[in-house]
Specification:
mainly alpha, extended
């Protein structure tokens, strides 16, 4: 899979907490991008957007 470098703005406390989560899980923050991608994919799977014209 091709990677795309991006920039996001987050509350500092949210980012710090997320990095601490990665540190606990992996022993470092080097996998933060993978964890963020997994979180985004999980969110989209569990919160589908209704297509236009479909019943609510």
């Amino acid at each position: 899979m091709t990677k795309t470098k991006t920039s996001i703005s987050l509350d500092k406390e949210v980012w710090t907490t997320f990095l601490l989560y990665c540190l606990e899980k992996h022993g470092s923050t080097r996998k933060a991008s993978e964890e963020l991608q997994a979180a985004i994919l999980w969110y989209m799977k569990n919160n589908p957007v209704l297509k236009q014209g479909s019943p609510s």
